[in-house]
């Protein structure tokens, strides 16, 4: 397990971005050949949408001996695309050629065999050169029916960042077929209590569960991580102060600062879409009320005034409304109010325990946790912003909690104890393509990061 610490890691990401901008990535694609005109192949909102069949052979060495990275890069691209539910990657054992000997350029492809024998509509071919601590790769996407090149990318990365290279080519493939940005280079922050002695520390991993890094090391108990949409901040709650508070950590490595009033207990929240504000819950008397914190001025203003406990605020994508959980009507239920705290309205009416709401980045759905009729299990559901059209995404398999949307609104991460231990999972917004990632809980999906 690699645990170099989050701040150096995040700074490393920024340095890598500049490196790519100035060197390899800015060098652009290789000769485009018959590069196809831009177009969209999949209408991801159509109920008639079907999976696109792809073939992704192992990348071949362009100079030097075979390296395990050739197959590993192909496997990461395959896994990224398959988990969207939009692609099906054909079994490599059905491929008609040896990938270590076959050409990767347009004029070297036998498209009729890939189309008619393998039944692949898209073909990913690539080659690489490993030199010292860097890897250079050329990767292409071909349309087998038209015999045309759809994508051509040339990458130059530190060898240790080969997974990021694969994720970014998968992003390009997804955008080529759907017209939408991919989320394969995003990260998930979460809470780990992997040992009885551990009270809860914040960790970060890639969206596929790889490349685990530790953020907090205070040993006092930390939870409720939340990313700012601009990627500049990571908020979390901690018992390292007395009373416990909410802290915001700059992702560029600067000094963190406390959000809530020093004499009041604060617990986690979320940022506004423009990252200018952070809404959280602060103890007031015997209850918790919602408070708005302005990042630039560090001024707090109270948002809610109820007799119940108001917690877990989440902004709508336009920043005009906030969804939150409140006990003002008895048990916890889901409410929506204007961003200035006015006009609160209850939107959940099924069940006696509904909490942890998160507004989709698309604005069309709200996800939350709900206790099912057996009074033990907890499921993840989504509803329209007015509370209608409830859809259950998990099936009463243990306690499924803390949903968090991907930045494209097409996936959710959550924690579940269905295996007997609390673990982090991801699934599509339809509840399909479920994948277990790591031991942990309270996941928070990052925005797209440089």
From TrEMBL:
It is found in: Periplasm. GO terms for biological process: protein import. One of its GO terms (cellular component) is periplasmic space. Residues 42-149 form the TolB N-terminal domain. Gene3D superfamilies: TolB, C-terminal domain (2.120.10.30), TolB, N-terminal domain (3.40.50.10070). It comes from the Bacteria. Pfam families: PD40 (PF07676), TolB_N (PF04052). InterPro entries: 6-blade_b-propeller_TolB-like, Tol-Pal_TolB, TolB_N, WD40. Residues 1-36 form the signal peptide. Keywords: Periplasm, Signal. Belongs to the TolB family. This is Tol-Pal system beta propeller repeat protein TolB.
